[in-house]
Structure formats: structure tokens, C-alpha cells
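for the recovery benchmark. C-alpha cells below, seq after
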């Protein structure tokens, strides 16, 4: 039995087969349309290969029945050469067919991956904050390969098996129809035994995937830099070794069971095949004795029998294999068909020569999640993202349920559910922002202050259109953000967040991400403005120093200044800054504060203020509480009001004696 058959049986229970509809098939075939010449060539080669496979048994029949009894040396030489050249021709045909198949398969993978990646790049931040990264990687890798398999392997395999089975049955019927009937009658026993054993093997395979996922997840959690640091700090190295030994032992034991059952699987399948072969040779031998059958014919018939069983077995597993492949296409199409939160108008305006006049007009927003805009949950056996509790092994929910309220902690700190009962005294609420209206004139500095969770970061995330407001509008130089192109908007806005992301690459690459064509002079000028140039030049490799995963080799202040230099290099008209200096040492804070003055000079700046120096230099201070602007004015004006700002000043900003 060929390998594809038992894989079909093993995989049949892992995933729910797709409902293969006409629309789905037409859409799948659309991806094969650019390769129709290659597919046509493959079909021709399949016919050639099938024809060649039918010739060899007939040659053996003629050798045994005619050439050898007649001692025909010329015929013997001719058939011997034919038996030599047929495998050679078949090998050449196979290589060409494989090349065509690989061209189609890899081409489909390329087309699907490019489509998926392009679509994901255009999805809003809301999508990524509610989707597991592992699921996206599975769609881009596993599902794309599964979809490619449907076109280049499954469909081709079905066509090949149909052609082979039809051709072989035709030849066998022409040789002896009674033996052909016996050959086909044994097939139900063949399939039944394969499915019974396949159920057992599939369950063991699933256990192997799950135990491997647990072991891999444990390695992933404890061998990354954060996990390794935690293990060492708490002195849990012996415990982790013990836990890993236990999980590795489970993998070992399941692997042994899988090997034993797999061997038994093939042994029993081989035995069933032997039953059919024995019946055919027994009945065929009887016909030979009776003079109704030649020895050469029964030899040829036995050869055709093996080919027929392989082809029919492939066809028996084809529906499951094909529908399983369709599941991958459905998951790929699910991403492609997802509606986008942030849509660019066809006639969108290109922002150019922006003055930096920014206005919020009665803006309201919340983080309600529309499930129709998210990916469906998929159970993927053996994938790390399915292991929800790595250390304890306890089950967990696949996706946390959130009505609004809580965008991830990296956006803003939010109060826990246990405090929701006291919502009047906390920042917990249904609506993230309510009725925000303010204007930042060109060159002005607007400071946002307020309790943690008041909506400050949410406000800043609306400016580069990472989200769209549910009501109201945001305008730059009088143009609604929804009326301008996303690229031109991104070019005019520079943003530095509290948790800055650096690629695992050189400092130069991280800086030039803002402007790929920047010269070395431009890079150094931006670094000097951000007070980071001297530090970089003190490194052994200078600007070619690799910063490590997420910039982990750098301190918080160094990462922050590189992020500032990156924004300076971009040279945007509007700056959005979350100062993030509260957790830095005094030297780093002083360097960043000095750099901020240079960065904000002449630009419209929206700053979430953590330091009194920023507040004192602000043209306008907006005090936010529970998603609303409750006070506005200068530092002195707000102190005179003796309201929330005055309280914040006393607790957060007022210098201590």
C-alpha cells in the first residue's frame, strides 16, 4: 500500500472535513488557472507514465509464453532492451512531471502567502490584539501548504489513480474477466481493515502530537531569554529538568506505541493483500492447469493486481484526503475574506505639505470586538498555541472574552474585573472615549494627563488611524483622516510609545526603517539629536551592532533614545509621544528630556505627560478621566481650578522636598 493511503486514514479524524461546494471548488481552481499549461503537461505525462506501466507486464507475458519456449534470441534481445529503456523513459517522465508539479505547488504557495501577508498588513490593530500570533503563523505556513497540497498532490493523485485504475481494469478484463472480478471483490476487506487499524493509529498519532506540543511549549517557555531568567532567579532549574524529563518520557512512550502499531498496521494490510493475491494465483493456476490460461498471462495478471490495489486504495482515501485539503483552503480564504476595520477610500487624498493643524471633533470610541472580523478558533493538534497552560497542564480558554473594555495591557493599564463593582471610583467603563473635542494648532504642544486607564493612549492611537472612532471625526489641516490615504497619513505622523519595538537586527537597520534611503550623515544627525550617537560609537561594531531580540541587549533608556532617533530620521510634521521616562534612571531621563525638546521643536506634538517639565512647557493641558476631557488649560489655570488636575499635581507631578 502506498504511503499516501495510510496518511489519509491517519489524518481523517484530526480535522472536520470541509463541505466541498461548487463555489469553493471554483475558487480553488482559480488559483490553479495561471498554471494550466503546467497542469496540462502533467496530465499528458500521467497518461504516458500509465501507458508505460502497462507495457512491462505484457512484455513478461510474451517472454514467458512465446520468446523463451521458441528460443527466439532476437525477440529476447528486443524485450530485454525494452525492459531496460522503459524504466529510463519512466524516470525521465517522472523527473519532468515532478518539476511541473513543484512549479505548480510552489507557485500556489507563493500566490497564497503573498495574498495573505498583504491582507494581514492592512488589518487594523484591533485584529492583532485579538488574534494569537501562532494562529497567523499556522495560516501562513501549515494552511498554505495544505492548500497547495490540494492542487499539486491531492487532485493530481486522484486523476492519476483514476486513469491507472481504469486502464489496468481494462487490460485485466481483456485478459480474464473472472480473475478481475475476484481481484475487485477482495477490495472491501482491504479497505475495512485499513480503516479499523487507521482509527487506532490515528488516535496514537494525535496523542503523539499533543505530547510533543506540551514538550515543545515547555522548551519555548523556559529557553527564551525571559523564561530562562525567571527560572534562574527563582532557583527552579531542578524542577524544570524534572518536568521536562516527564514530558520527554511521554513523547518516548507514545513514539514506541506508534512504531509498534504502525508496523502491525502495514503487516495486516500486507496480509489482506496477500489474500487477494493468493486467490488470484490459485484460481489463475487452476485455469493454467485446465489450459484456459497461459503462465505468462498469470504473471502479467499478478503484476497488474498490485498496481490495481495501489490505485484503488488511493481512490478509497481520496474523498477524505481531498476534503481535508479543502479545510486548508477555507482557512486561507477566511483571512482573505475578512472585512477590514480601517478602509482607505478609492479617491482618498494624498496628504502633502501638512501644517500640522490637528482637531478632534466630538470623538467617541470603544474596544468592542466584532467576532465576524476575527478568525475562527481552530484546533490544531501538536501546535504550541494549543497548549494554554504550559507548566500546570490545566486547560484554558482559547480566546479571552472582552466586551470592550480591555484592550491589552501594552496599550493602557486597566483595572481588574473585581473592581468593576466600584466603577464610579475606577476607570472601568463600557466606552473608552466619549465626546472628545480639542484642537492642536500647528507647532503647539498638547499634554494629556489623567489617571491610569483614563483613555490617554487610546486617544493617541486614533491619530495615526490605528483605530477609527465610532462617532465624531479627527481632522488634519481640515481633512478627515478617513478621507486621506493611509500611507500619506503615516508619513506625516511620528509616534514613540512606552514599549518601543526594535527588530533583531543592527542599530542602523532599526533606524533606517523610518527612512530606508537615509545617508550615514542623516543617521548620525538623528542619533545626535536623540543623544544616542556617542553611545553607539562606543560600541565595538558601532551602528552595525545587533540589538538582540526586541532590543534586549540595550537598556530601557538606550532603546527609548534609538526610538526617538528613528522618529527624528522620519521627520514627521506631527509627533505623538508617550514619554515613558518615569521608570528610567535620572541620567537616561535627562538625556531623553533634552532630546525631546529638539524633537518637538517646530512640530505639533501630542504628549502623554509623565513629567512636570513637559506639563510646564505645554501650550494646552487636557485632563482626562474615564474617557472624557474633564479639564483643560495651562498649568497655572488648572491649579487655580482646584479640580482633578490639582489632585494629580499633588500626587504625581509636584516636586518632593
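predicted aa per position
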Amino acid at each position: 500500500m502506498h504511503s499516501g493511503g495510510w496518511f489519509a486514514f491517519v489524518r481523517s479524524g484530526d480535522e472536520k472535513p470541509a463541505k466541498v461546494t461548487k463555489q469553493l471548488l471554483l475558487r480553488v481552481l482559480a488559483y490553479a488557472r495561471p498554471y494550466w499549461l503546467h497542469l496540462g503537461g502533467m496530465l499528458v505525462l500521467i497518461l504516458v507514465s500509465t501507458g508505460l506501466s502497462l507495457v512491462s507486464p505484457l512484455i513478461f507475458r510474451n517472454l514467458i509464453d512465446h520468446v523463451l519456449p521458441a528460443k527466439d534470441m532476437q525477440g529476447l534481445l528486443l524485450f530485454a532492451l525494452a525492459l531496460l529503456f522503459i524504466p529510463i523513459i519512466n524516470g525521465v517522465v517522472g523527473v519532468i512531471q515532478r518539476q511541473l508539479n513543484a512549479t505548480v505547488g510552489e507557485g500556489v504557495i507563493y500566490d497564497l502567502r503573498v495574498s495573505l501577508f498583504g491582507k494581514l498588513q492592512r488589518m487594523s490593530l484591533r485584529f492583532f490584539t485579538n488574534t494569537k500570533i501562532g494562529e497567523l503563523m499556522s495560516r501562513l505556513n501549515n494552511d498554505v501548504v495544505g492548500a497547495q497540497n490540494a492542487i499539486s498532490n491531492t487532485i493530481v493523485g486522484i486523476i492519476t489513480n483514476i486513469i491507472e485504475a481504469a486502464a489496468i481494469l481494462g487490460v485485466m478484463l481483456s485478459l480474464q474477466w473472472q480473475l478481475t472480478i475476484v481481484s475487485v471483490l477482495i477490495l472491501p476487506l482491504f479497505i475495512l481493515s485499513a480503516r479499523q487499524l487507521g482509527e487506532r493509529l490515528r488516535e496514537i498519532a494525535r496523542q503523539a502530537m499533543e505530547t510533543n506540543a506540551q514538550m515543545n511549549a515547555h522548551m519555548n517557555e523556559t529557553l527564551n531569554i525571559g523564561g530562562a531568567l525567571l527560572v534562574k532567579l527563582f532557583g527552579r532549574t531542578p524542577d524544570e529538568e524534572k518536568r521536562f524529563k516527564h514530558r520527554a518520557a511521554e513523547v518516548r512512550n507514545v513514539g514506541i506505541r506508534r512504531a509498534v502499531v504502525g508496523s502491525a498496521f502495514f503487516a495486516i494490510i500486507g496480509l489482506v493483500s496477500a489474500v487477494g493475491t493468493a486467490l488470484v494465483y490459485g484460481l489463475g493456476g487452476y485455469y493454467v492447469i485446465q489450459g484456459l490460461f497461459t503462465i505468462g498471462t498469470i504473471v502479467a495478471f499478478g503484476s497488474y493486481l498490485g498496481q490495481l490495489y495501489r490505485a484503488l486504495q488511493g481512490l478509497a482515501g481520496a474523498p477524505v484526503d481531498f476534503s481535508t485539503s479543502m479545510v486548508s483552503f477555507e482557512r486561507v480564504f477566511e483571512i482573505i475574506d475578512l472585512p477590514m476595520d480601517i478602509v482607505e477610500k478609492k479617491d482618498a487624498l494624498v496628504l502633502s505639505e501638512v501644517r500640522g493643524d490637528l482637531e478632534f471633533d466630538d470623538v467617541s470610541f470603544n474596544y468592542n470586538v466584532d467576532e465576524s472580523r476575527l478568525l475562527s478558533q481552530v484546533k490544531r493538534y501538536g501546535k504550541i498555541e494549543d497548549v494554554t497552560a504550559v507548566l500546570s497542564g490545566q486547560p484554558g480558554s482559547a480566546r479571552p472574552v472582552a466586551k470592550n473594555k480591555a484592550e491589552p495591557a501594552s496599550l493602557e493599564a486597566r483595572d481588574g474585573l473585581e473592581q468593576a463593582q466600584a466603577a464610579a471610583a475606577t476607570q472601568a467603563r463600557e466606552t473608552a472615549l466619549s465626546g472628545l473635542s480639542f484642537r492642536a494648532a500647528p507647532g503647539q504642544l498638547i499634554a494629556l494627563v489623567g489617571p491610569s486607564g483614563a483613555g490617554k493612549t487610546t486617544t493617541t492611537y486614533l491619530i495615526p488611524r490605528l483605530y477609527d472612532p465610532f462617532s465624531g471625526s479627527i481632522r488634519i489641516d481640515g481633512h478627515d483622516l478617513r478621507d486621506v490615504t493611509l500611507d500619506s497619513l503615516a508619513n506625516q505622523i511620528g509616534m514613540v510609545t512606552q514599549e518601543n519595538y526594535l527588530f533583531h537586527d543592527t542599530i542602523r537597520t532599526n533606524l533606517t526603517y523610518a527612512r530606508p534611503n537615509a545617508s550615514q550623515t542623516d543617521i548620525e544627525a538623528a542619533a545626535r539629536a536623540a543623544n544616542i550617537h556617542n553611545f553607539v560609537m562606543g560600541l565595538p561594531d558601532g551602528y552595525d551592532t545587533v540589538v538582540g531580540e526586541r532590543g534586549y541587549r540595550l537598556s530601557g533608556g538606550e532603546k527609548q533614545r534609538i526610538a526617538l532617533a528613528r522618529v527624528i530620521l522620519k521627520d514627521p510634521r506631527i509627533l505623538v509621544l508617550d514619554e515613558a521616562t518615569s521608570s528610567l534612571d535620572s541620567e537616561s531621563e535627562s538625556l531623553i528630556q533634552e532630546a525631546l525638546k529638539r524633537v518637538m521643536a517646530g512640530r505639533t506634538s501630542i504628549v502623554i505627560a509623565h513629567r512636570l517639565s513637559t506639563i510646564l512647557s505645554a501650550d494646552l493641558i487636557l485632563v482626562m478621566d474615564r474617557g472624557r476631557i474633564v479639564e483643560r488649560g495651562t498649568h497655572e489655570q488648572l491649579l487655580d481650578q482646584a479640580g482633578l488636575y490639582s489632585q494629580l499635581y499633588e500626587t504625581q507631578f509636584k516636586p518632593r522636598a
